Amino acid sequence: MANEEHYYSKPGPIAPLALVDEWLGIWLATQWQCYKVMHYEPIPRSRQFVFNFGAVGAGLWTGNINTQATLQQRNSPPEAMQLRFYPLDDIEVMFFIGNADTRFMTARQTARADIFTMQVDPFLHSTEVMVLTNSNPFINVFNPTAVALVQSRVQFFGYRYALDQATHKAFGTAR
After folding, report:
1. Quick check: 3 pLDDT over 50?
2. CA distances to 6, 78, 129, 166, 171 from 18, in Å
3. What total number of domains does the chain contain?
4. pTM for this model (two decimals)
């Protein structure tokens, strides 16, 4: 049997989860969505991937804001993005896939990324998410301070994958 390399999200600098002609599996809405990777490329930290959610009142939430303006993906071929993110301002960030599927949660609590996340997790492994074409990522921003903020910026970076639609498989449990 040939040696197999398995890539998965792990602490440390971000690395691709799959290489060309390897399988990429994304858990979405209680199913694995699996595709072969045709191409991948990095999305470096840059101003083009800073999303400004605008002004936020003291102690208030922005409400769910669609991130398509920054994270728009192609439909053909389908794409996936492996992203890490962090706030640039004194805010707390909640990430959703679709309007209801919250990331980083238990049955009762949801973890939020804030300006201190990078201090305890310098590579931002704990913020890593996978976004599949048409999965509608949303962000909800909270201002924990006692003063209104005129901007609430979040930086994204990671990898973009072009996926082979002909290889798509979906199933409810890992095989």
Report:
1. no
2. 8, 15, 14, 17, 19
3. 1
4. 0.87
